[in-house]
Write a structure and sequence with these properties.
The complex is a heterodimer of chains A (357) and B (355).
Chain A lengths: L1 H12 L3 H4 L5 E6 L9 H16 L3 E6 L6 H12 L4 E4 L5 H10 L4 E5 L8 E6 L1 H15 L4 E6 L4 H17 L4 E6 L6 H13 L4 E4 L5 H7 L5 E6 L10 E7 L2 H13 L6 E4 L6 E3 L8 H16 L9 E2 L5 E3 L7 H5 L15
Parallel strand pairs in A: 1-2, 1-3, 3-4, 4-5, 5-11, 6-7, 6-8, 8-9, 9-10
Antiparallel strand pairs in A: 10-12, 13-14
Helix pairs in contact in A: 3-10, 4-5, 6-7, 6-11, 8-9
Chain B lengths: L2 H29 L4 H9 L1 H4 L3 H27 L7 H19 L7 H27 L3 H21 L35 H19 L1 H11 L1 H6 L4 H25 L13 H11 L4 H25 L3 H33 L1
Classes of the chains: A alpha/beta (357), B mainly alpha (355).
Chain lengths: 357, 355
C-alpha cells in the first residue's frame, strides 16, 4: 500500500498525471485572487467558469479556489489542482505568474493559462483583455460629466496594466474637456471594500465629482451614493445595482467565450500555448449600459468611440502624445505598439503626480 | 489556584477547543449544504493520510515553520506581559533586509551570501522590534499600539521596495524583485529535495529547543515567567523590567525577521507587494493555542498549518467558500479562550463550595 502510494507519487511528480488518470470528463480548474462574491473581477471570472459548465454540460467538471494569496500559497493551490487531475487550470491574477510557471514545469501534461502575465511555456499560455480600450470610453464620459473638472482615480497597484488604464482614460477626458485634472490614489489592493471606500471618500472630499476605479469592489459606488451627485463606473463587472447613478456605465470583462474556446481546444487536442490580448472587437471587453443620467449626446459620443475602437478606426493611444516629462512619445498619427503598452511605466503629459517608485 | 488540577486542564483545554471547533465547524459546513463529516475529514485527514499526502506533508512543514518561529518569539514576551502584536511588520522587515543582501550581491555565487542574509534578516526584524521597545522604555508608550501601527508602515515600505529599489530590472516594469529561487547562492532550498525541510524549518526546531532551555533552565527564563505572574515580586527578585522589554521585543522581532527572510528566500521567492500573508498575526493564535509553551507552540503551529492546507483542499475539492475556512480557523482561538474562561469559572465555583 505504502509502496504503491509512493509509486503513484513518483509518477505524478514526473508529471504523468494526465495520462495516468484516464477520465471521461475534462476537469477545469480556476484559481481566483478574490472571493467569487466580490461583484467585480473575480465574479466575472467565475461567470466565465459557469459559462463553461453551461456550454459543455456533462463533459466538463469545473473546480475553483477563491481568495488565494499571491506567492507561496498560490503555488500549493495550483499544485493541488494539478494533482487532483485537472486538465487545464486558469490562474486569474498577475501575482500568480511565477507560481504558475513553477507548477507548469512540474506538470507538462496539464495545460495552464495565466491571466495578465508575460511568462509562457509549452503548456502555459497567457491571456488578457485590453481593458484600456474600455477606459478610453469611460474617459469620454468622465470628461463630459465632471462639473468640478476634478476626476478621482482609485488605482490598485502601479503596474503597467493600471497605468495604461489611467493614461487611456486621461487622454480621452482631456480631449473632450481640456480643463480636467486627474487625482490618483493608490490603494495597493485589488479587493478591499474598506480601503476602497476610504479612497473614494477622500477623493470626493477633495472635490472630485467623478470617480474611476481600478479596484474590484462596489465600495466606491456605495460611498459615492451617500455623498450626493457623484459619478462612478462599474469595474470588471457591471455593478448594475448602482444604476442609474452613481454608476453610469461600466467596463465588463467577458471571459466566458475565451474559456469555452480554450476548454474546447483541450477536448479536441488542439490546445496550444499562445498569447491572447483581446479587446472590444473580440467581445472580451464590454461597455456596460450607459444610463439616462448621461445626456444623450454624450452617450452617443462615448458609443461612437467604442465602435471606432472596435472597428480599428481609432487606437486609444494615437499621437501626437508626449510623456509626462514633455518628451515626445508618439508622433502625429502614430499608434503605440503592444510592447510599449505592456511595459508602460510612465504617465502621459498633463497627469500630475508621480508613479510610486 | 491549585497546581494539580489546573495544570491538567491547561493541557486539556487546547484539545477541547479543537474538538469543539470541529463540532461547531461541522454545523457551519452543514449549514452551507456540505457533508460535515466529509469536510472535517478533508481538513484534518486528507493532508496527512490522503491520496496526495506525499505532497502535503512537506507543505505542512513549509507552512508551520514561519508560524512556529514567530510564535516562539512572541510567547516569551507574552509570558512576561509584553505584547508584541506587530510580528507581521518585523517579518516584512526581515524579508526586505535578507533579500536586500542577496539582491545587492547578485549575481555573485559566494557561499557567504546565505549566512549574511540570515544575519540581515534577523537584524531587520530585531531593529523593527526595537522601535516599540525603545519608545516604551524611554517614553512609556504602549507597545501594543506602536508595534501594530508599525505593521502598516512596514507594508508601505514593502510596496515601495517592490516598486522601486528592489524591482527586478528584467521584470518588464512589473513590481517585485528578482526571484531568489532562481539565484542559487541565495535560495533557501529544501535540504532534501521535496521534503519541505528548508532552513526555516531547522531554525524553528532550534528555536523551540532554545526557548525550552531558556524558560526552564535559565535565570532569564525564570525572570520572564516571574514578571508575567507577579510583576512586583519580580522586581524584588532583581528583574529589571526595561531590560526585559528590550530583550523580549528584540528576540521576537529577530525571530519574526528570520521567518520572513527564510520565506522570501525560499517558498515565496521574491519581495512583492503581497509578500506578507498574515503569518505574524496567525502566530499570535499559535502562541496561545500552544499555551505559550515551546513544545505546545510547535504542535499548535503544525495544527494551524493543517487547517490551512486541509482548508485549501476542502475549498478546492468540496467548493467550500474561503470565508468559511477562515471562520473555522478563527473559531479555534475563540473556543480556546471560551473554554479557558469556563474552566477557570468552574474551578472558582468549587472553591467556594469547599469553603
Amino acid at each position: 500500500m505504502k509502496f504503491t502510494r509512493l509509486l503513484t507519487g513518483a509518477v505524478l511528480a514526473l508529471g504523468l498525471a494526465g495520462t495516468a488518470i484516464a477520465e471521461e470528463k475534462t476537469k477545469v480548474g480556476f484559481i481566483y485572487v478574490g472571493p467569487i462574491g466580490d461583484g467585480g473581477y473575480t465574479y466575472e471570472h467565475n461567470q466565465g467558469r459557469l459559462a463553461v459548465e453551461e456550454h459543455f454540460g456533462d463533459k466538463v467538471e469545473t473546480i475553483y479556489q477563491e481568495s488565494v494569496p499571491e506567492g507561496a500559497d498560490a503555488e500549493r493551490a495550483i499544485t493541488q489542482m494539478a494533482l487532483s487531475g485537472a486538465d487545464i487550470i486558469f490562474t486569474t491574477s498577475f501575482g500568480f505568474m511565477d507560481s504558475t510557471v513553477n507548477v507548469a514545469a512540474k506538470f507538462p501534461d496539464v495545460k495552464f493559462e495565466h491571466a495578465t502575465g508575460y511568462k509562457r511555456a509549452d503548456n502555459l499560455a497567457t491571456y488578457s483583455a485590453r481593458f484600456y480600450e474600455g477606459r478610453s470610453v469611460l474617459g469620454v464620459l468622465a470628461g463630459r460629466l465632471t462639473k468640478t473638472n476634478k476626476i478621482g482615480y482609485i488605482g490598485s497597484f502601479p503596474i503597467p496594466e493600471v497605468i495604461r488604464g489611467i493614461n487611456a482614460a486621461y487622454i480621452q477626458a482631456k480631449r473632450v474637456n481640456p480643463d480636467i485634472e486627474f487625482n490618483i490614489i493608490w490603494a495597493y489592493t485589488w479587493f478591499d471594500p474598506a480601503k476602497e471606500a476610504d479612497a473614494a471618500t477622500a477623493l470626493i472630499e477633495q472635490g472630485n465629482d467623478v470617480i474611476l476605479q481600478h479596484t474590484d469592489s462596489t465600495a466606491p459606488s456605495a460611498a459615492a451614493k451617500t455623498k450626493g451627485d457623484i459619478i462612478t463606473f462599474g469595474q470588471a463587472s457591471d455593478m448594475a445595482e448602482y444604476k442609474p447613478a452613481p454608476r453610469v456605465s461600466s467596463i465588463i470583462d467577458n471571459w466566458g467565450p475565451y474559456y469555452i474556446e480554450r476548454v474546447g481546444a483541450v477536448m479536441d487536442g488542439t490546445w496550444e500555448s499562445q498569447d491572447t490580448w483581446a479587446g472590444i472587437d473580440d467581445g472580451m471587453v464590454v461597455i456596460g449600459e450607459i444610463t439616462d443620467r448621461v445626456p444623450a449626446e454624450v452617450k452617443e459620443e462615448a458609443l461612437a468611440l467604442r465602435d471606432a475602437i472596435a472597428s480599428g478606426e481609432q487606437h486609444p493611444f494615437t499621437g501626437p502624445l508626449n510623456k509626462q516629462d514633455g518628451s515626445v512619445w508618439l508622433e502625429e498619427g502614430q499608434h503605440a505598439d503592444d510592447d510599449t503598452l505592456l511595459g508602460m511605466n510612465f504617465y502621459v503629459e498633463g497627469i500630475k503626480g508621480t508613479i510610486p517608485q | 489556584m491549585r497546581p494539580q488540577p489546573s495544570r491538567m486542564w491547561v493541557y486539556l483545554t487546547p484539545l477541547m477547543a479543537v474538538v469543539i471547533t470541529m463540532i461547531a465547524g461541522g454545523v457551519l459546513f452543514a449549514a452551507l449544504g456540505k457533508d460535515p463529516i466529509e469536510a472535517i475529514a478533508t481538513i484534518f485527514w486528507e493532508p496527512l493520510f490522503g491520496e496526495f499526502a506525499f505532497y502535503y506533508r512537506p507543505q505542512l512543514l513549509v507552512k508551520a515553520a514561519p508560524l512556529v518561529l514567530i510564535a516562539i518569539g512572541l510567547s516569551l514576551g507574552f509570558r512576561a506581559g509584553i505584547w508584541n502584536i506587530g510580528a507581521e511588520g518585523q517579518y516584512i522587515l526581515g524579508a526586505i533586509c535578507g533579500a536586500g543582501v542577496a539582491l545587492a550581491a547578485y549575481p555573485s555565487q559566494s557561499a557567504l551570501i546565505f549566512p549574511a542574509m540570515i544575519v540581515a534578516g534577523a537584524f531587520g526584524g530585531w531593529a523593527w522590534g526595537m522601535i516599540p521597545a525603545l519608545l516604551r522604555v524611554k517614553f512609556g508608550t504602549n507597545e501594543i499600539l506602536v508595534s501594530l501601527m508599525l505593521v502598516y508602515v512596514a507594508e508601505q515600505l514593502l510596496a515601495a521596495m517592490s516598486l522601486g529599489l528592489m524591482r527586478n530590472p528584467e521584470g518588464h516594469g512589473f513590481p517585485g524583485s528578482r526571484n531568489l529561487q532562481h539565484y542559487e547562492a541565495a535560495h533557501n532550498a529544501d535540504l532534501i529535495t521535496g521534503s519541505g525541510l528548508h532552513w526555516g524549518v531547522a531554525a524553528a526546531l532550534i528555536a523551540v529547543i532554545f526557548a525550552y532551555i531558556l524558560l526552564n533552565r535559565h535565570i532569564l527564563g525564570y525572570h520572564i515567567r516571574l514578571t508575567g505572574q507577579a510583576p512586583r515580586a519580580a522586581r524584588f527578585a532583581g528583574v529589571r523590567p526595561n531590560r526585559l522589554i528590550l530583550f523580549c521585543l528584540g528576540i521576537s522581532g529577530a525571530l519574526a525577521g528570520l521567518a520572513g527572510m527564510f520565506e522570501v528566500a525560499g517558498p515565496s521567492g521574491q519581495v512583492s507587494i503581497d509578500f506578507n500573508v498574515g503569518y505574524g498575526f496567525t502566530a499570535i493564535i499559535v502562541a496561545f493555542l500552544g499555551r505559550l509553551h515551546p513544545v505546545g507552540i510547535m504542535l499548535a503551529g503544525l495544527l494551524m498549518a493543517l487547517t490551512y492546507i486541509g482548508g485549501e483542499i476542502a475549498q478546492s475539492n468540496l467548493q467550500l467558500p474561503a470565508a468559511a475556512i477562515q471562520l473555522f480557523q478563527g473559531m479555534l482561538l475563540f473556543f480556546l479562550l471560551a473554554v479557558d474562561v469556563l474552566v477557570q469559572f468552574r474551578l472558582r465555583l468549587k472553591r467556594t463550595e469547599v469553603a
